[in-house]
Amino acid sequence: MREYSNLKSGIMITFISKYSNIFAQLIINSVLARLLMPADFGIIAVITVFISFFNMLGDMGIGPAIIQNKSLDENEISDIFKFSIIGSIVIAIGFYFFSYFIAYFYNDKIYIRLGGLLSFSVLFSICNIVPNAILYKAQKFKQVGIINIIVNVIVGTLTISLAFKGFSYYSLVFDSILKSLFIFVLCFMACKLKISKGYSYGSIKKIKNYSSFQFLFNFINYFTRNLDNILIGKFLGASTLGYYDKSYKLMLYPVQNLTNVITPVLHPVLSEYQNQKDIIYETYIKVIKVLAYLGIFISVYCFFSANEIIRIMYGTNWDASIPIFRILSVTIVIQMVLSSIGSIFQATGYVNKLFSTGVVSAIFTVSAIVTGIMNRSLIILSLGLVIAFILNFIQCFYVLITHVFEKSFISFLLQLKNILIIGVLMVGGYILISKIVINNMLVSAIFKFIIGTITYAIGLYITKEYRLLKKIILRK
């Protein structure tokens, strides 16, 4: 099947570029961590949260809308690009003035100066939305990957040299500005966007309905994803937030770095078949199973190895994060599968369903967070998030399977039954070795990994699911 071949090729290219970037960033950040003070990173981290928000405002759902709409001609894309340029200027200026509020809220005038500089980062990031979307629409994943690797290495090296010369957090500021600038310039050159004369609002009207629902979903999702940190920091204190943040980000690491090589490819490839839902459904089921097979192993391993993972990564001072991480690790498999669903709503043109399921998901998630805050307990909050993610999985996939694909939800769930069988076998294996105590954390983590791998392999063999994985991996 051509769509499967394109998907597999795109995922492989994105995987290589993604992990090349991660490797480069690990080296660069390791050097910077030895040159800069934690306070330097903290100052930039605060303002980065707001940069993400303003970049989201500037996106307006335009990127996915361009990928989805196959009838847009060069003049119409040119008009959309002009519109995004105007929007980028307005939003960048808005970010600069908003930096005065940030300075007032944190009682530090440095944020005004940083806001003025980083407004250029906002400007170029929004300018790149259309060129980046054009490249993804043309499925030029390799070019996007190469651009990101080149920029990260070159700018990262420059950032290190600035840090060496004592520029402190300004080196991180220039890092953000230069990356957004160079990525925009290179993507603009690569996409060969032709700027036509004049301007017509008709092109914006053409994608308005689609992009509006996409923007509303992004807006709700942003606040849902950041509300826990805001409320924990406000009502439970900075140290409590530190324990939670370390646990959550560590749990999220496999979710982001495994699914982010798949989800950017799903929409551009599958949108080619937006009027052939059966093709999208058959391909997507394979994607879900791959994500679920990876996720169930990671979830169970992290749950039973929480002590080892936290102590190896952070040390004994972070032991309070262990129970939080253990509970949140249950959601890894759920989040890995859920992370792909947005691309399918986009590819099938049902962004209104993406928005409506996003609203319901926000209600579940916010309720869990507020309940935990009211009880002043991170354990209750974490358990609430597990329940929220389970409910989100049920309601999101129910809408997708029954309303979009018009198939049986029960039949869909039955296709995933073997994942539960494999998970149960892994749990059984860990229970059998629970009496074995190994004091060395690294040796214990390796031992549990081996036990998990053995029981996982047994599960794949018993359920015969290894055949599907072999077919997916080896298929040309």
Give structural attributes.
single chain, mainly alpha, 22 helices, cell membrane, Lipopolysaccharide biosynthesis protein
List the helices and strands and how they pair.
Blueprint: H1 2-35, H2 38-59, H3 62-68, H4 74-106, H5 110-127, H6 129-137, H7 141-164, H8 169-191, H9 202-235, H10 238-259, H11 263-270, H12 277-304, H13 306-314, H14 322-328, H15 332-338, H16 341-347, H17 351-374, H18 378-404, H19 409-414, H20 417-432, H21 441-463, H22 466-474
Helix pairs in contact: 1-7, 1-11, 2-4, 2-5, 2-9, 3-6, 3-9, 4-5, 5-8, 6-8, 7-8, 9-10, 9-17, 10-12, 10-14, 10-15, 11-16, 12-15, 12-20, 12-21, 13-21, 14-18, 15-18, 16-17, 17-18, 20-21
Enumerate the spans where pLDDT stays under 50 for 5 or more consecutive residues: none
- Number of helices, where a helix is a run of at least 4 consecutive DSSP H or I residues: 22
Mean pLDDT: 84
* Sheet with most strands: none
Topology order in helix (H) and strand (E) letters: HHHHHHHHHHHHHHHHHHHHHH
Report the oligomer: single chain
Report the strand count.
0
Specify the overall morphology. Answer: globular
Domain unit count = 2
Radius of gyration: 23 Å
Structural class: mainly alpha
First-to-last CA distance: 10 Å
What fraction strand?
under 5%
Relative helix content: over 70%
Subcellular location: Cell membrane
Keywords: Cell membrane, Membrane, Transmembrane, Transmembrane helix
Membrane topology: Multi-pass membrane protein
Pfam family, one: Polysacc_synt_3
